[in-house]
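hey so i finally got around to running both of the ones u sent me last week. sorry it took forever, my laptop kept dying halfway thru and i had to restart like 3 times lol. anyway pasting them below in the order u listed, first the sequence line then the structure token line for each. didnt double check formatting much so if smth looks off just lmk and ill redo it

first one:
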Amino acid sequence: MAVALYPGTFDPITNGHTDLIQRAAKLFDKVIVGVAASSGKGPRFSLEERVDLANQVLASVKKVEIMQFDTLLVDFTRQCKADVILRGLRAVSDFEYEFQLAGMNRRLAPEVETMFLTPAEQFAYISSSLVKEIAALGGNVSEFVHPLVVEALNGKQPD
């Protein structure tokens, strides 16, 4: 059984994330969405809120499981018995950082492969950071995130 782990902070989960997850679900027997604690990034939503939003947004996608983690990614990958770490590449600017991460993960866990997927063109420019900034300034983010995320963002006070 081929299992892919798609890790991230998902603060919040965007339509770009959802697109990658839906496509990965066609390629793998199981896709685990690993929601990272990442307190260092100063997330807008708590870990529990991010897991809850991901569960709601992805409820209709078969073969997907949402899990939270606060450990080294390769350790979490082994815990999940995942074969692949799935990462998204939106632009060339993402590549250098993701390439470094993939190399380090390969060094730490040579049995785990890293696979990159690119989002559909209409989602290539969407990032959680931009969505949060637009929402904090009163902009409309409804074309970038699920309606439940719009609702959650509208209920959150900017930091």
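and the second one:
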Amino acid sequence: MSGAATAEPAAAVRGALARADLHRGQAYVDGAWISAASGLTIAVDDPFTGAVIGSVPSLARGECQAAIDAAERAFPAWSRELARTRGAILRRWYDLVMAHQEDLARLITLENGKPIREARAEVAYGAGFIEFYAEEAGRIFGETIPANVPGRRLMVEHEPVGVCAAITPWNFPLAMLTRKAAPAFAAGCTMVAKPASQTPLAALALAVLAEEAGLPRGVLNVITGKASMIGDLLTASPVVRKISFTGSTEIGAQLMQASAAQIKRLSLELGGNAPLLVFDNADLDAALDTAMVAKFRNSGQSCVAANRIYVQRGIYETFLIALTARIARMRFGDGFDEATDIGPLIDLPGVAKVEEHLDEAVAGGGKLLIGGKAAGGRLMPPTLVRDVAADALLTREETFGPLAGVIPFDTIEQGVALANATPFGLAAYMCSSDPATIARVGRDIESGMVGINTGLISTAVVPFGGVKMSGLGREGSRHGLAEYLNMKYLCHAGL
């Protein structure tokens, strides 16, 4: 039934895995599965039912330090391993991830709530990074530079950075780890990973499969515990030479400041506030497809979600009518229902934020076309508001939920100005069939990534990252591999 929450599956079936050992309740340090000596744990719940589905250790500082020590011990041998050997291990890891795609997807839906179809897609997407970097491991090339004086050879080599740390978010719990770990391992680095406490299960399952693939002990360590303590430990440690973080701009800035004393390498994929510009000359179906994916994928809980939708006057009414009809066909409810399009939000504060944005948009003159407030618990229907004020809260903050606010504009110049009126610059989207408009807006928009007539832009072969307060560094592509490599110049004289 359209717009209705779906029924919960039987408890015995819910989240059941073909391989039960992929659902782990311990951290992974130096090739061993450990609990906290204190016995303290962190509960993990199912966002749809609210039921506790397991727990993970709340490790103490010394136990987390043991993971850093293990990565340090493993680094010399792993960094000197043949590139083709590292690539072969990554390839086996990829094969194992894809062989267990359904179990991994079920874990993701169980701890995150996203629709099972999207969870399967996340596994394939995340595995794509492992596959890509398995091949790139053997393509870390140096160079020889023509000598400036006789009798010299000038060379450049690339070396792994060293021990790295990955701090990953809850919204893509599997893919955000593979996007960081795969290039690190291809480069010859070792890693300590800290998954989000709300969704640690997918990361721990990846560790099970990495071990089976032949990844040596200490190369990957997955720790769970208090985020602030672990963050302080990683930033203060002289052993950890790089931190890769995906999360809020506020926390990213804190990590950057705390890492300054150690001059650490940083990759920061931070907050976004993506605009979608729909021009009068856009193909309507392509624009609707773009809006639906860019706004509602992952229930709107994505850093690259279209947070603000700007539509040119000539197509405004037609677009709203058609978008309302599309949204009316969406189903929201249990992620394990194959028909579900929108799953529950991750927690109640997330629901409260979306409702705050909705209330403020309507109070500021916006008109609710479909949807509304939460349907109970963490379920929120896909919602559309038209005529939103240009300075509404949802234009200034990430909504992180299935609320679409639409704002009219008149000229290309006005549209670009509205799109750029933010301190963020991660992703942006535009829909047009005019090559001149595409070229002009693509040039002028302030964003690290631009989707043109599509809302699905991320893949392992392209650089993912933003500008302005959306962070620094890139993940994916050969540029993502370079983030884990140091450049060394060698000058050989006396030849």
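quick thing i noticed on the 2nd:
The CA atoms of residues 141 and 158 lie 7 Å apart.
anyway thats it, ttyl
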